[in-house]
Amino acid sequence: MQDDELYALHQQELRRGTVVLACLLILSRANYGYALLDKLDRSGFGVDANTLYPLLRRLEKQGLLISDWNTEESRPRKFYRTSDAGLALANSLSDDWDNLHAAFRRLKGES
Amino acid sequence: MTTATTTTATLTDRYVDATLRRLPARQRPDIEKELRASIADAVQDRVEAGTDPAAAEHAVLADLGDPARLAAGYADRPMHLIGPGLYLDYVRLLAALLVIVVPAVAGVVGFARVLQGGTAGSAIGEALGTGVNTGVHIAFWTTLLFAILERTTSLRPMPARPWTPDALPQPPSRRARQGTVVAAFVGVALLTTFVLLSPFVSTETDANGDPISILSPWLARNGVGYVFVGLAVAGFGLTVAKNYLRWNPAIAVTSVLLAIGVSSLLIWLAANDRLLNPAFVSAAGWTAEVAQWINIGMIVAAVLAIVQNVVEAAVGFRARSWETPEWNSMIHTIADGLTIRSPRR
Fold it and tell me: How far is CA B146 from CA B24, B98, B137, B162, in A?
């Protein structure tokens, strides 16, 4: 029998870094907080709003994202875009992900 | 804006306020604008899907969760008092301080109380009280210090140098050996000074204004004081030998015999009340009880010294070295040595 709490804990551990990578990839085209949240959700990266919004600011502080206020529309929104450093990091992380994926496949193919 | 959104806007205001209150002032305007926009986007999304605006607002804020948690995320502030990075240092320092300082302070306070002529009961009570007090203070201030360190990255001591096997403790270095020898020398010097000066220097004086020695005059009459000094000097010589010569059975045996001899002599003197000067005890206003407790304390200390020396010697014989393992490993050695068998029916 699977312990739900334990599963949730380990699932969260496993997913933690994937949200960062997904953000860096999606934001290669500038977007704002709520739209990004929606897109992540629809793409299958479940993330809470109260995790994502602070995360965006942290990534900006680390120089991986660049932000700009768009005041052209009726509701001013803060748009984030992945910086060059962020794109480079996303590439490296993607490679890591692919390697891990391949490693898991091999692991499961052997057994 | 419709009337429906007025009440829900108040809810948003309260939520945004609750979040911003926990953030540094300079971050507030930007986060407020973004947070409000995000909430409005989410509400609009739900309303367009057919939810009642008030219910939508409520659901969105419920999804965002506790403002304190959100603010902690924005402020990048730890949600723990002391994190894993500092926890080990914290526990080690706290344990070291408690183990060293509390008994030392309690002992000094209790001893001072006895010197002031307090009863054994009041001395023990005061020592315990001060001990507890000191412990609480140490725990509080150490915890506070580490909680502050946890929150001020700039104050954090270097991202602790990576651990390497070189950091493992080494057998006593030359410097450590010198430290042991110096400490032994200071001990001998203090004991000698105490024994030699005690007839002439004292806190109490008799009717003629002459000092009353704290040590029993019997010791001086029979030269036992000098025997002690002589034994202490011999002990110092053995300490030097142990630190600079290789292990050999002669020195090991001499050293353990010397320890047993000194301790036995002390036990005999204390048991026959030949350690303290009865005149000093009465002049200082101590009760017979205090003198008795001091004698008992001496006996206990002497017995412990014998046990320690014998165990140390036994471990040394086994390892053929001067290694003096920590008590933990010593206890393990003893336990390993004893063949403990569960009784069988």
Answer: 22, 16, 14, 20
pLDDT tens per residue across span B206-256: 777 777 888 888 887 877 878 888 888 888 888 888 777 778 888 888 888
Is the pTM higher than 0.80? no
Chain B neighbors of A31, CB-CB under 8 A? none
Strands A65-70 and A77-82: antiparallel
Contact between chains at B69 and A57 (C-beta distance less than 8 A): no
Q: Which of B197, B203, B194 is nearest to B116 (CA)?
A: B203
Q: Which tokens in the block code for residue A33?
A: 């907080």
The residues with which B276 forms a beta bridge, in sequence order, are: B215
Taking the Cβ of residue B29 and every Cβ of chain A, the question of whether any pair is shorter than 8 Å is answered with no
**Which residues of B fall within a CB distance of 8 Å from A39?**
none
Say whether residue B271 is in contact with chain A using an 8 A CB cutoff.
no
- Chain B closest CA to A110's CA: distance in Å? 36
* ipTM score of complex: 0.85
